[in-house]
Amino acid sequence: MSLLEVQNVSIRFGGVDAVRGVSLAVEEQQLLGFIGPNGAGKTTMMRIIMGMVRPQQGSVEFRGKDITQWSVQHRVQLGLALAQQIVKPLHSLTLLDNVALAAGARHMRNPLQAFLNVDRSEARDQARNLLDFVGIGNVNNAFPSEVPLGFIKRMEVARALALEPGLLLLDEPLAGLNQTEARDLADLIASLVTPSRSVLLIEHNIGEVARICSEIYVQENGQRLMQDKAERVMASAALRQAYLGEHKA
Ligand SMILES: Nc1ncnc2c1ncn2[C@@H]1O[C@H](COP(=O)(O)OP(=O)(O)OP(=O)(O)O)[C@@H](O)[C@H]1O
Ligand SMILES: [Mg+2]
Q1: If you measure from the C-alpha of residue 122 to the centroid of ligand 2, how many angstroms do you get, rounded to a whole number?
Q2: Are 227 and 216 in contact (CB under 8 A)?
Q3: Which residues line ligand 1 (CB under 6 A)?
Q4: pLDDT for res 114
């Protein structure tokens, strides 16, 4: 049995078929790359898996449970977490408190309640460790508006890790980073995969995806194009065609 099994999901926004009949599986202890041109429906797939939108067709199973109708909070409790493409930090809180809030939320139904009630020093210790781990421990006490986008992206990864997920969904974590920073964060992402944690990594930085992921799933125009070993995906004519099509559009 796969850790995550998405079957035949579809969602339509107005006239747009954002995702059409997509099936996708993530195994235990897997780092699966997820690529595709702009507008391919990658973020929409992440939102379906996380429960932020409901598919109009199809099902999502995680750890053997059908979670298609579950709330985001219940999915978090079962072990899913998402680092979003467009990060929405709480601007009135420091980076440390943004992560501490998530660390507290892991154990409570209401994140705000968690922030006020749980042992904040424990959540803050955990947050400090996570910010060190993602390499921005030196700006713990900065506010989101005071640091570059690359730092905010790392904070978002720390925030997702604070939820102690069994499957971490990352939506373009390398965006906004320079080549060296991207390489460093990609190495860190690869190190996140353990016997108890898998990662589904959406990225436009295909070079880094091919470097750290042994397997890659490709989506184009809301549909599954292929899923195969990284070398085979990178060598395929269909992949080149998908990205050429993007440039023609
Ligand atoms: N809430 C929404 N309402 C209307 N249309 C939407 C909504 N969310 C996504 N779409 C549309 O669905 C399609 C897929 O969008 P999505 O953001 O999932 O693509 P993506 O692969 O993540 O793209 P990118 O690489 O640019 O992040 C696009 O045509 C987008 O405009
Ligand atoms: Mg996206």
Answers
A1: 34
A2: yes
A3: 13-14, 16, 18, 36, 38-44, 85
A4: 56
